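Record copied across here:
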Amino acid sequence: MRIFVYYFDWDNTSGNHSGMAYFVRNYSLKSAHKVKLLRVPRNYSVCNSIFQRLWREYIILYLKLFAGKDDVIFFNEFLSQGQKTGHPVEISLALREKNIKSRIVGLIHLPESLLEKFYDNSYIIKALNSTDKIIVMGSSLENYIKRLIDAVNVITTFHYVDTSYYRPSEIIAAREFSVICTGNLLRDYKTLAKIIEGTPGIKFKLCLGKRNDSAGFINFSNVEIFGYLDESELLKQMQSSDIHLSVLFDTVGSNAITTSLACGLPQIVNRIGSIEDYCNQDNSILCSSVEDFVNAIRTLSSDSNKLNILKRGARESSLRYSLDKSIQWYDNFFDNNFA
């Protein structure tokens, strides 16, 4: 069995240790199977429709010629804004129309809220039915997809983390207690501002990425705002923080959660989506209101014993999603379903 991986290298994670492009490259090197990587051009979304059509026809012809009946075609960004990621659904549908004998697997990252924003229900079902198996990231997405297709064809996994790169700092130094917020997808910044307002004596580091969402925070004297940070600088900021705060509308991918857990940061987060797949009483404080968030931050800022217990729990829980364990999970998945 060979595995043909069709993947896209997102700008915001390109070249770092947390994106799915990094994962599939490592998978191709460490998997027990022979893996062939098919990378979508980075500028695919700005290319004209003629180039996009020719690209899809090339991939379809390539897979028709070289992928055999015992092989697997793995779409790593299934239902992830195809206009940007090389139209994997259209390729999957075309391969089925051409009666390709290879097995097809799609990996879905986006939560129900975004899937229904981007696509109508009939398109989602049609896309799902073009595959043999669907892998989803998180239990809430699993429950949604299982309402649409046969439940036995839906498999749940979790976002990997490279725990050899993302780890607590080996340098222990006295510093001011601080809270870091990373990631910018489906974040509730209005509620975050209320939480910061309720904790005036606490230092917050807001890593907002390339999006300009700083307007609601510029008047807080206890807030340090960062734009886009390269991965090494982001790691440095996480390693010099004490807790990771996420105020979410929904869960997407969850690499912000897994990387901060690996750095030994307890999570202060609201109960939503698949967050409890990663966060529990051993590594987090789960919140339901602004008051809950404020109390959680105040508690950990004043109780070093509880803070250190959760820090140890955070690091230990991240090891369940380590890069090597995730690679083994995918090998087991392909062996158990297609060997």
Observations:
- The radius of gyration is 21 Å.
- The CA atoms of residues 110 and 316 lie 26 Å apart.
- The mean pLDDT is 93.
- The first strand starts at residue 2 and ends at 7.
